[in-house]
Amino acid sequence: MYLLLHTVKGTPFETPDQGKDRLLTHWEQIDYGMQCTSSRKFLSISPVVLYLLTSFYTKYDPAHFVINTASLLSVLLPKLPQFHGVRVFGINKY
Q1: Taking Cα atoms as reference points, which of 86, 57, 59, 55 lies closest to residue 69?
Q2: pTM exceeds cut of 0.85
Q3: At a CB cut-off of 8 Å and minimum separation 6, what does 59 contact?
Q4: Do the beta carbons of residue 11 and residue 28 sit within 8 Å?
Q5: Which of 32, 40, 46, 57 has the most CB within a 10 Å radius?
């Protein structure tokens, strides 16, 4: 899911935007770039719910907890409004 939303650029189908969204990821195109919409909230809450479930079912084992926390941060940080259109270390710039 991360690759689909945060690395794939362009539109999955023909749109009348005349190439405006060609350099944007799918996450940046959701709801025309508006922040805090219901679909964005749902897609941001679902990893947190999975994180809580995996932490509970692994009985908060320290090794699993570190891996789960790193995974959660790698999924949630790109979704923040401050990272809209930002390319960290030039990755996925073109």
Answers
A1: 55
A2: no
A3: none
A4: no
A5: 40
3-state secondary structure of 19: coil
Closest CA to 5 of 29, 22, 23, 36: 29
In tens, the pLDDT along 17-43 reads: 776 776 778 777 887 778 889 988 998
- Residue 79: which region, alpha, beta or left (left: phi > 0; alpha: psi -120 to 50)? alpha
Q: How far is CA 37 from CA 8, 42, 77, 83, 84, in A?
A: 21, 9, 17, 16, 14
User: Coil, strand or helix: which one is 9?
Assistant: strand
Q: What is the pLDDT of residues 50-73, one digit of tens each?
A: 999 999 999 999 999 999 999 999
- For residue 17 the two structure tokens come to 């935007």
